[in-house]
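As a warm-up, study this chain.
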Amino acid sequence: MKSSSVITRPVREVLSSYMLDFSYPETSQRLGMSSSAIRSIVDSNRELLDTMQSERQLRTKVDSDYILASLKELRELNVMDIHRDDGTIKPLSEWPEKWLKGVNNIEVKEFSGDDGEPIGRVSKLRYPDKVKCLELMGKHVGVKAFSEKIELEDVSEIGRQLALGLENANKSRVSHDDEVIIIGDEDGG
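Now compare it with the structure written out below.
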């Protein structure tokens, strides 16, 4: 890695901007530089970029384990924590913290009668998408729930057949001045 005295402030600024979305065109737009210049700076400072990413990860304490745990928590939210038995929504002050963080959107619409007195209220909540959480958890590198798995039941038999085939192939070939001549079997085939 280059010594810290050689790394200029503009290089750090380019790398910091690039780390926002890892997009050369977007970084180029934000900094008013050409995309090729951004690419050149990033490519020639990959080690510093890795170090900066690691430092950010330590600073924010956001890593793949944190993301997986957060998805798991969203997946396990229970609507009964925020609803009464009759289906009405509890006041926000009675919600568990995980629900306060987990709900995507709350819309409240109040209705008034002709005299201006409130006659009702409709609350619309956008809950976390539990299927999407499960999908993201399954795609996680450590989980690999959706990666294809090939299972061989009798690997030793396949290996034996491959070795036998290779041995037979080597027996039927004769090398002559870098040419390979295939000699047929005794039946002339």
